[in-house]
Write a structure and sequence with these properties.
Length: about 230
């Protein structure tokens, strides 16, 4: 794959933290290129660098060395305002604990990214389509406290997709769910990847998740150890 085909490209990306007088390497020399429509899983032990990598890809953190390009934007050189605007246009986030606003209804939670980005009113039409897509249109007026964990995560996926991002970053999206709902969430993310040609990156401890991707990475001690297609999904 050439660099011009990549939705996101990381070149020699490293991230360090200071723990007292000790310099801790969170990531070291990461090279990665992902194409539009890739479903990528990243696994590894706790503290191995998975979430740090996801935060860098999402512009929530900055590398100490190296370069990150997302859909033609050199995000490792953007200022805070530019990164905020880019996240609102190009990136969807799905978190382990859903991160829904409890005082907003399902509809309002999904609508929020459009309001923040100043999207035109006609864009709101996509909310009903997405809620139907995740099987929750009939719950549009419910509040998060009235929903199960699996339902809240489906709302979070609809919210992540509502502005048609180039990439969706999911940090342990099944980590707070039972196995049945975990499978449902992975099914929806895989379908969204195929239907919307959105690149999906899933950081997970769940070995089952790797079966959903067409690419799989292992990360340990801040280094990518393997990069391989998943048999039957490539």
């Amino acid at each position: 794959m050439s660099t011009t085909d990549a939705i996101i490209r990381l070149h020699q990306v490293s991230r360090f933290y200071q723990a007292g007088t000790v310099k801790v390497t969170a990531l070291s020399g990461i090279d990665m290129e992902l194409s539009r429509g890739d479903f990528v899983t990243i696994m590894g032990p706790s503290g191995g660098g998975k979430t740090t990598l996801l935060n860098l890809m999402g512009g929530l953190d900055r590398p100490d060395t190296g370069d990150i390009h997302l859909n033609g934007h050199h995000i490792s050189q953007m200022d805070d305002r530019g990164l905020t605007d880019l996240r609102r246009r190009e990136i969807g986030f799905v978190f382990q604990f859903f991160n829904l606003l409890p005082t907003l209804t399902v509809w309002e939670n999904v609508e929020l990214p459009l309001l923040l980005s100043g999207a035109p009113g006609r864009a709101r039409q996509s909310i009903a389509t997405l809620l139907d897509y995740v099987g929750l249109l009939n719950r549009r007026d419910s509040f998060p406290a009235e929903m199960s964990g699996g339902e809240m995560q489906r709302v979070a996926i609809a919210r992540a997709l509502v502005h048609r991002p180039s990439i969706v970053l999911a940090d342990e999206p099944t980590g707070n769910l039972d196995s049945v709902n975990g499978h449902k969430i992975l099914d929806i993310l895989k379908e969204a990847c195929d239907d919307f040609q959105t690149t999906v990156v899933v950081v997970t401890h769940n070995p089952t998740a790797a079966q959903y991707g067409n690419r799989h990475f292992e990360i340990e001690d801040g280094r990518l150890k393997t990069s391989s297609p998943v048999p039957g999904n490539g």
